[in-house]
Amino acid sequence: MGSYKGEDQHRHHHHRNESNCVLVHGPIIVGAGPSGLATSACLKQQSVPSLILEKSDCIASLWQHRTYDRLKLHLPKQFCELPLLGFPHNFPKYPTKHQFISYMETYASHFSIKPRFNQAVIKAEFDHVLGFWRVKTQDFEYLSRWLIVATGENAEPVIPDIPGIDRFKGRVVHTSLYKSGSVFKNQRVLVIGCGNSGMEVCLDLCRFNVIPHMVVRNTVHVLPREMFGFSTFGIAMALVKWPKTGPIELKNVTGKTPVLDVGALSQIKSGKIKVIEGVKEITRNGAKFVDGQEKEIDSIILATGYKSNVPTWLKGCEFFTKDGMPKSPFPNGWKAETGLYTVGFTRRGLLGTASDAVNIAKDIGEQWRTIKECNDSNFNYLPQRNVVQKVKK
Hints:
Blueprint: H1 7-15, E1 21-24, E2 28-30, H2 34-45, E3 51-53, H3 61-65, H4 97-110, E4 121-127, E5 132-137, E6 141-144, E7 147-149, E8 156-157, E9 171-174, E10 189-192, H5 196-206, E11 213-215, E12 222-224, E13 226-227, E14 230-231, H6 232-238, H7 250-254, E15 259-261, H8 264-269, E16 274-276, E17 279-282, E18 286-289, E19 294-296, E20 299-302, E21 306-307, E22 340-342, H9 349-374, E23 388-391
Helix pairs in contact: 2-9
């Protein structure tokens, strides 16, 4: 069994149509976002190597490619740190998008985490005969005893089916592609969705002489980001023993995130952001609403959130629901059977991610040491230098 000697050799073998099956000595992690990086770092602390497969060309691709320019963390930085390495002390209380990306890059560099980019997982399935997971990308098939799903709750944009939207002549864009309100200057913009993204996009649009019309279909829990100079989230965490029917617990029960207001509420009160109950139909030049109004609209922004993509590629597994979320709620959703683990599906943000990553690493670390002890005299499964090896089918 020859050892893997680098990406160039790997590509060379592939182009020669030789075996493209790769044995991974350690867990395969799908996704190089905060969840994947945190788990890889915690595994490294347990002396367990891992291989991250990432479909895009960078770490934290959601943050780098699908977030608007003015985005800041909604929670204070101490609630958004990953295990083993915190934010720099000179970062503000609410780091910007670019500061968070910088933190992720520093984190990966600090722990020498080198994901394999442009490897989109097409299919992952447990081989009961081999006792290994088979993880297929467009280039290779990877084999490992352990598979860690780190693609998270927000892997793909949710694009709702709205009657008439196909005939609308203006621009329709999901917030995943929204960068700045400057391209909508002086337009009449309909924002569909009233979560944190919808609120912040509306606030950003107001800076460019836009009067956004925001569609609100259901009751929205809006909290000030801070009260009396303290983080609202921090206060809620301190009062966690109180009744669990409040807005901080709302996401854990319903999956809906409470809105932490950063200025949009005052713009609504002043009339600069218009609130509309619901869209009945999109027309060629605008929209008809459930209250009978009809308005001309230049552009539509879909602030309709994201969803898990796990059901599209993880096969033969009953651990996930049809919506791609673990059936077992927090804190028990991080471990399934046959070496399958999940991280970043807790509906508790980066705090939940950190908890999952630590638990997974400890669990796999114990297995790793047991296997090594059992095979210490002739131990080929855990090479000291290479994380992956080429094998013939």
